[in-house]
Amino acid sequence: MESYKLELHPVRGQAHVCLFRNVTNAPELRQRLINQDATMACALVNAELVINPFHVMLAANRAAHDEKHNQLKTHNINSEIVFDFSSTIHISQSLKRFGIEDTTTDIIAVKLGGTSEEAIAFMKDNIKGDVVALDQLDQIRDLKRIQKYYQTGDVKEDPVKLMQLVAGAMALKGL
Fold first, then answer.
1. DSSP state of 48
2. Lower Cβ count inside 10 Å, N or C end of the chain?
3. Domain spanning 2-141 has what CATH number?
4. Which residues of 32-69 are buried (b: 16+ CB within 10 A; e: fewer)?
5. pTM of the full predicted structure?
6. pLDDT tens-digit profile of 78-102?
């Protein structure tokens, strides 16, 4: 797990980002999210659609900004983080694409606020899988699907160029 300071929103606390592999309870987690279980206090993102930690922080910062200005489009900041991965304004489509499915085995968990120890304890208590280093995203990410969802065209498997295009698409959402 890695923790990052939300530079523009220091009052919100840090963003704690953890990559889980071989997750066995995705159906239960998904059902809790659908039921809007308030005890599920973290965002769960399909890791196949995450380029790198910067990608996560773009979504987390935008969600923190929207929360600060009372502009959340979803029911809480955790679902807002998942929604903010998308370049479209369609909430249900965004949550389906970037959220977890019953068959998801690789999950990025994002928890805002609290200490690193509290965050990792919460995540490990709720997500049944192996905690691995975030650099394993290189092995997990599906560049073809990312290109398709962000409509970037063919960037010849170049994650740096793709991240630039994705950041632009995320920033222009809603304009």
1. G
2. C
3. 3.30.2380.10
4. bbeeeeeebbbbbbbbbbbbbbebbbbbbbbbbbbbee
5. 0.93
6. 999 999 999 999 999 999 999 999 9
Q: What's the CA angle centered on 74, arms 47 and 93, to 5 degrees?
A: 55
Gap between the Cα atoms of 49 and 137, Å rounded:
9
pLDDT in tens, 5-29: 988 888 888 999 999 999 999 999 9
Q: Which helix or strand (DSSP H or E) is residue 21 part of?
A: strand 14-21
Which element (helix H / strand E) includes 109? strand 107-112
- Asked if 139 and 153 count as a contact pair (C-beta separation under 8 A), the reply is no
Backbone angles phi, psi at 73, to 5 degrees: -100, -15
The answer to whether 116 and 1 have CB atoms below 8 angstroms apart is yes
CA–CA separation, 125 vs 147, rounded Å? Answer: 34
Tokens 């679902």, residue?
A: 79
Q: Report d(CA 61, CA 12) in Å as an integer.
A: 10
The token pair at 1 is 């797990």
Rounded to whole angstroms, the Cα distance separating 42 from 117 reads: 14
